[in-house]
Structures are given as C-alpha cells and as structure tokens.
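Suppose you are handed only two things: the residues of a chain and a line of SMILES describing NAI. What would the bound structure be? This form records exactly that question and the answer produced for it, so the two can be stored side by side and reused later without any lookup.

QUESTION INPUTS
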Amino acid sequence: MTSLPTIATVIGSGTMGPGIAATLARAGATVRLYDISDEAIARAESAYGIVTGVLEAVGSPTVPGGSVSFGTDLDEALAGTGLIIEAVPEKLELKQKVFADIEARVGDDVIIATNTSGIPITTMAESMSHPGRLIGMHWSNPPHLIPMIEIIPGQATDLALVDKLVEIVKAFNYTPVVEKEIPGFVENRVLYAILRECMALLEEGIVTPEGLDACVKWGIGYKLSVVGPTRLLDMAGLDIYQAVSSYLNKELDVSTDTPQFIKDKIAAGQLGFKSGGGMYEYGEGDVDAKRKEIITGLIAARKTLSSIPNV
Ligand SMILES: NC(=O)C1=CN([C@@H]2O[C@H](COP(=O)(O)OP(=O)(O)OC[C@H]3O[C@@H](n4cnc5c(N)ncnc54)[C@H](O)[C@@H]3O)[C@@H](O)[C@H]2O)C=CC1
Ligand SMILES: Cc1ncc(C(=O)O)c(C(=O)O)c1O
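ANSWER OUTPUT
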C-alpha cells in the first residue's frame, strides 16, 4: 500500500512544476498541474513527452495508473487532492497569497508542501489559517532526475507531517533528508557557499570559467558524487582538515551580496540559458544542445551512481 496520495496537485508549471508532476505520476498518482498562465501550461503539456522520456531513460520505476492533467482552473486542480506542492516564483507574498487561495478550497487535513529554495517555512506559515499543514519539500533542479528531497518542518508544522512526507518521498523512490529549519536549508547553503567562492575566484581572475568548471567538476564534484563531505573527512584524515582549515578558513570569501559582475550581467539582460547568454555565450541552437548534453550526462551519472554501494 503506497503512502502516495491518489490525487496530488502541483501549483506552478515553470522550471520545476512539470518535472515534479511527472515524477509523482510515474509513481502512480493522478496529478493535476496548475498554473495561472495558459502559455506555461501549454509549454508543460508539449514538453511532457520529453520529461517522461527522461524518467524512462533513467529507469525510474513505473506504477501503473498515474497521469498528469494540465489546467488553469484552481478548483479543478484542487478537487479531491491529498497533497499540494507549491512551485510558484520565490516571492514570499506571492506564496502566501497562493496558500490563502488553497486554504479557501481544501480541508485542513490536506498537506501543503512548498518547493521554496530557502524561505523559512515558519515565516510563510504565519499568514495561514492552519499553519500546521505547511511543510518544506525542496526538490532540486531537474526535479525528475535529482532523487533527493529536503523536508523542512517550520515551527508550526504538525510534526506528524514529517513522517508522512518521508513515506511519500520514499514511495516514489527518492531519498528524503529531514532538516531543522535554517534559511537556505542544507543543500542551498552548501551550494551557495561553493558558488560564493567560485564567483570570487572569477572576479579576482584567479581562474577562467572553463578552468573553474573543470576543476570543480572533476575535483570535488566527481569525488562528492561518490563520497559525501563527512565521509570525505575520514578518507582524507581529520588531521589534514585541521591543518588546512587552520590557515585557509580565514582566507575564504565572506561576501554578503551578489557579486557586482553578476549584477552587471543581469542588468544587461544576460541571464544564462533563458536569455542565450550569461556566464557563457550561446549561438543558434547551442542552448538546446547544452540542455540535452546536461540531461544525458545526469541520466548516465544517476544510473552509474545507483549501481555502486552507498559509501
Ligand atoms: N529553478 C530552480 O532551479 C529551482 C527552483 N526552486 C523553487 O521552486 C519554486 C518555483 O521555481 P521555478 O519553477 O524555477 O519558477 P518559474 O518562474 O520557472 O515558474 C513559476 C511558475 O509559477 C507560475 N505562477 C506564478 N504565479 C502563480 C500563481 N499565483 N498560481 C499558480 N502559478 C503561478 C508562473 O506562471 C510560472 O509558470 C521557487 O520557489 C524556486 O525558488 C527550487 C529548486 C530549484
Ligand atoms: C543556482 C541554484 N539556485 C537554487 C537552486 C535550488 O535548489 O533552489 C538550484 C538547484 O539546482 O536546484 C540552483 O542550481
């Protein structure tokens, strides 16, 4: 008997929503993908075959009977739902408005999970009539490929939800990581610590973007894909860690804002894939080609990592 609710609803069909919906449908749920934008829904519907093809390629187990429907009617999207996953833009007021719209339409036993990248759950729940049912459920991009989900209860979250969500995540063969609430949660605090140092190294001209990507990908990235950071310390030796951290920690970048060169790029409309240029420049067809290379690589890596012992 699966813990996955029969009906689930995903609110927001942008970068994250469609992959979340497809992953739940693959596990047998009837999923309603909702957005306020007809264009977003149309894009998701047309790209759905690609997403399910990726799930097939990575060998994601299939439970028969699952489906995804696409729509812009909130009442239809919420009818009979047992789990709502919110994936609208990272704006506190917008998320709180969405929660209010949801609460007006569902019973107070329905789980509301937010895919926020790091806004404290406690803060978001303050505006809710039943704050106990809000919980953080942070998927990573691309959500139909990265099989780890952070589960973060806020101060008001009904703690029974934590175990319930852990079982739901396990029901679609993902790894749940339960965390105490802290801004950015665990994954993004580590990621943004890495990115802060990377941006400082680029800004100081210590390394080129290509050199930085090669160094991090084949150095710590490759190693950390097999050996987690705490196990790595045992492998390297805690004495080595002490010797190096004793002089290096004070040298690391401690910037508290986005680097100016990044702000300048954004001001010039250089956002990355979505604008055809950012940290790198992309010619005709390059973005689609790069996206395909990344997905192909993530599929191959996921299959290999799934076949080796969890050290
Ligand atoms: N993009 C990423 O790499 C990741 C994003 N997240 C988080 O997931 C959430 C969603 O992020 P993305 O998918 O990247 O955003 P996005 O901007 O790509 O998509 C958001 C979607 O929400 C829709 N929307 C806006 N207002 C709405 C409303 N009131 N009701 C329903 N839909 C509405 C928009 O039309 C859009 O289609 C954010 O909180 C983000 O921080 C989490 C992990 C990774
Ligand atoms: C750059 C960046 N920022 C945030 C996130 C997130 O998890 O919210 C991701 C991601 O990979 O999911 C990311 O790459």
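WHAT STANDS OUT: The two ends are 30 Å apart (CA to CA). The chain has a mean pLDDT of 97.
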